[in-house]
Amino acid sequence: MLKINIDNISNFVNSDELNSWKGKVTDANNKIYNKSGKGNDFLGWVDLPSRISEDEIKKIEDCAALFAEQSDIIVVIGIGGSYLGARAVIDALSNNFNTLLTAQERKNPLILYAGNSIGEDYHAELLEVLDKKDYSLIVVSKSGTTTEPAIAFRILKSALEKKYGSDNAKKRIAAVTDKSKGALKNLADNEGYKTFVIPDDVGGRYSVLTPVGLLPISASGFDIRKLISGAKQMQDYTKAQPFDENPSDLYAAARNALYHKGKTIEILSSFTPSMQYFGEWWKQLFGESEGKGGKGIYPASVNLTTDLHSMGQFIQEGTRNIFETVIRVEKPQKNLVVPVDSENLDELNFIAGKRLSEINKMAELGVLLAHVDGDVPNIYTEIPSINEENLGQLIYFFEKACAVSGYLLGVNPFDQPGVEAYKKNMFALLNKPGYEKESEEIRKKLE
User: Fold this and answer.
1) Residue 113 β-bridge partners
2) In whole angstroms, what is the distance from residue 177 CA to residue 144 CA?
3) Catalytic entry in 148, 288, 364, 399
4) Helices 84-93 and 276-290 meet at what angle, rounded to 10?
């Protein structure tokens, strides 16, 4: 089971100060479970792990198996929560050098991503790769009109139809979208694509345990039943445990207590390279949930020990408005030992015979001690190993904590009004029909 340790905030937030948040945390949980708080129409994620049906899981697994059988590559088209959760899990579970393995060595299709930018070179080079491979598309969009994935899907669908013909291309496209409306839903119905539903009451950044994340993860060859099981364990655990034993509640209270002490930036750290995209998913979860109304803890992430040689100096001695949350993985999957060198020119024989994981843990401990001494409090989360069940626990732990934390902060954790601001300007600059007034206004600003 996932563990949390908040001992290293004690120099900044004492036990009485932390316990003073207990009542507010209870109130936040009441808002979640009673659906009485802001954004209560987006609380479908709360009991999602226990609600997902056998029929839906089987439908996902069957589509994933079909796509895996017919594809060397599966392209997931989406942006934000439409791809970050899936990529976080897939990257964490995959071989670090997955792209260099042969299809036989991988045993499952390579998952690539599109529509998470408007990069011309990126998508052109992707097409060049796909032209030489068998591939399928999973397009994820509730509306079907989100700019970045809509552009990518238009381009990739055209290429797919050119390669396989219109009828065969339809068999290589799965749409994850709204159950009844929207451009992508209408297209999927008209074309006969395999279709999966994004629940109305689950927002994008909370959607990894819906077909949004489960279909790509299953197509990668990983066990979504174990992922769901881990999330279900954490769902039950965080609902049943009292404040002082509840990991999500303690994390939410600790980070808000630190925020009120002037710690306005949170850095998520991991000493496991394959967890890099988990940090990207976490940043979206907390950034989009809390950053509104002039409030919020700014979420950042670092990959250690790598970033000790880039961001380490700032973390140790820069502006003292930061705290750190560490994801620790207890057991690695492999075993690698430092060899003895007879000449010992690098003076490393003192660690000869030790596993790299043992050295890494000492580096981790040394870093955290140094950071606390440097006035950077840290919160410790630990999973026993990287597997589907433990990642399911970690996902739900952060989702629940984020919802509680947002209510503690006094914001709606489930909307994202600021996301639309850039789109209005972009559409005006591109002269989209209906934006004539905005086009005129913005061009005057640029004169």
Assistant:
1) 76
2) 8
3) 288
4) 160
Please give the pLDDT value at position 446.
Answer: 80
Catalytic residue list contains 239: no
Active site residue 123: no
Q: Which of 54, 120, 132, 309 is catalytic?
A: 309
Question: Can you tell me the distance from the alpha carbon of 248 to that of 256, in angstroms, rounded to the nearest whole number?
Answer: 12
Q: What is the largest CA-CA distance in the chain?
A: 76
User: For the whole prediction, is pTM greater than 0.90?
Assistant: yes
- Both structure tokens of 142: 């509730």
Q: For the chain, which ranges sit under pLDDT 70? A: none
C-alpha span between 395 and 231 (Å, rounded):
7
Whole-angstrom Cα distance, residue 67 to residue 87?
17
**pLDDT tens by residue, 379-399:** 999 999 999 999 999 999 999
**Cβ(301)–Cβ(325) below 8 Å:** no
The answer to whether the CB of 340 falls within 8 A of the CB of 349 is yes
Question: What ranges in 349-420 are assigned the alpha helix state H?
Answer: 356-373, 388-409
Q: 423, 424, 440, 441: which is the annotated catalytic residue?
A: 423
Superfamily of domain 3-37+227-409, CATH level 4? Glucose-6-phosphate isomerase like protein; domain 1 (3.40.50.10490)
What is the model's pLDDT at position 231? 98
Q: Locate CATH 3.40.50.10490 in the chain.
A: 3-37+227-409, 48-222
User: Has 371 been annotated as catalytic?
Assistant: no
Choose which CATH entry (3.40.50.150, 3.40.50.10490, 3.20.70.20, 3.40.50.12230) describes domain 48-222.
Answer: 3.40.50.10490
Angle, in degrees to the nearest 10, between helices 224-240 and 388-409: 40
